[in-house]
Amino acid sequence: xxxxxxxxxxxxxxxxxxxxxxxxxxxxxxxxxxxxxxxxxxxxxxxxxxxxxxxxxxxxxxxxxxxxxxxxx
Length: 73
What we know:
This protein is mainly α. It has two helices and no strands.
């Protein structure tokens, strides 16, 4: 009886360990894949440039508004 219990525990532990390894490996692989796509693919870079240009124009507008407020004061 004792041997059977030990075997069941070992099986459960190995199953749990393999599941944990899969969970830890999946996000790492997904993150690495995303980074590789961003580095290699020109499309994400182009979209990034567009968003940066938009953000830059917004900050410039805010800067102008701030300067106008300071001049009035």
